[in-house]
Amino acid sequence: MSKQIIFSRADKEIFRDGAKLIKEFNANYSKAEILNEALNHARVEETGLNVPKLRAVQVVDGKWAIVLDHVEGKTLQGLMDENPEKEDEYLNFFVDLQRMVFSNKVPNLNKLKDKMQARISLTNPILEATTRYDLHTRLDSMPKHTNLLHGDFNPTNIIITSDGTPYIIDWAHATQGNSSADVAQSYLLFYLSGKKELGDKYLKLYCKKSDTAIQYVQRWIPIVAAARLVKAKAEEKEFLLSWIDVVDYE
């Protein structure tokens, strides 16, 4: 098999094999997480959203892999980089697509609140007990919704085909819950990628289109930042910690 590597890091490798995209995990990767990712993808596929079709979950040479259809196209991020004059047009497209995701219900997905509560608990000893308590309390007080959430919605996870059809990829972190939590996540992802101004523009645009108070999304930011802290890269931790000052948002 001739591998055309698309993405590679220590724990996984994504490569193309003809019409297939193969996401191969290293031998120590959690089997439960791999199977959960495949199950998430299959459940989202049933909504009718444009996602690559799941073809197989397999083991080759002791390594688990998820096999999907390969979607030919450019990422939305690539298009934004190539056509900076179209930034507003692409950002509108991004927000509309995200709202389309939120309009779906997938009842069997894990609940966002459960995942967040567990993640906040795991921030010990990075966060003090008082901060963890404040975050748990805030999360528990937030309205309970059941919208489909992507969990990593950013322009690199949207592929645009030559005819303009968008495909949303990487559903490993999909849950059901409050859409404003996913918006807070996307906002942080813009900041983490060095696109602060675009992140601010995104948040204002989303809130205007959805008639959501910016302050409501901001209440989610410390929670989302804390949950992300658990698996954050070393260079991201200081930035995330700067958002976890709960008192500032009261």
What does this entry look like structurally?
This protein has 250 residues and is an alpha+beta fold. It is built from nine helices and ten strands. The protein has helices spanning 31-45, 76-82, 87-102, 112-121, 129-141, 179-192, 196-210, 214-229, 234-243, and strands at residues 4-9, 12-17, 20-25, 54-60, 63-69, 74-75, 147-149, 158-160, 166-168, 175-177. A five-stranded antiparallel sheet has the order 1-2-3-5-4, covered by helices on one side. A hairpin with a 2-residue loop joins strand 1 and strand 2 (12-17). Helix 4 packs across helix 8. The longest helix is centred in the middle third of the chain and has 16 residues, at 87-102. The N and C termini lie far apart (56 Å). The mean pLDDT is 94.
